[in-house]
Write a sequence for this structure.
């Protein structure tokens, strides 16, 4: 162990207390000043890694836990327990929770994209994609013009405004 690591461990050691029955607690000081008195000191149990899943189950999956989401579950666990990667473990546990993942819907898209715009007639919705591809002589780009279910592809020498407009006009007004 290097001197820097030893010094850091020594500083961290002040935050832990071993009780008379050999239980390790992490001491934290509340940042809030309660009624003008000194800040409040609290103890939270340092949980062994073998018990983490059981604690997460009790604080989230059980009847008392209530599947409250990441922030509330984290706050509930943080009140009584402490371990390294606590927030990350709570987040991982909630992502694997079948009840939460099946009951919460995905956010609804409010922006129109080619994937969620429906057309009622041909050429009602038209979009164009210009992609670069391997240079073969003077052709450097490929444009794909999509109109409902009609796909049209053309090789272009560049993607400047005039060239793109000509390709678009050629496709639509041919």
């Amino acid at each position: 162990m290097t001197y820097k690591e030893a010094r850091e461990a020594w500083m961290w050691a002040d935050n832990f207390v071993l009780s008379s029955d050999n239980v390790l607690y992490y001491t934290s000081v509340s940042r809030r000043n309660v009624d003008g008195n000194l800040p409040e000191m609290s103890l939270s149990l340092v949980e062994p890694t073998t018990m983490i899943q059981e604690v997460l189950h009790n604080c989230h999956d059980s009847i008392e836990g209530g599947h409250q989401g990441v922030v509330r579950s984290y706050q509930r666990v943080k009140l009584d327990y402490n371990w390294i990667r606590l927030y990350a473990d709570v987040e991982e546990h909630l992502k694997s929770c079948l009840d939460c993942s099946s009951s919460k819907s995905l956010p609804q898209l409010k922006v129109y994209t080619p994937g969620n715009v429906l057309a009622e007639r041909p050429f009602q919705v038209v979009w164009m994609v210009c992609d670069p591809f391997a240079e073969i002589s003077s052709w450097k780009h490929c444009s794909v013009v999509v109109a409902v279910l009609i796909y049209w592809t053309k090789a272009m020498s560049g993607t400047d405004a005039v060239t793109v407009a000509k390709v678009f006009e050629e496709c639509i007004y041919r």
User: Anything to note?
Assistant: The chain has a mean pLDDT of 75. The chain has two domains: 3-103, 107-174.
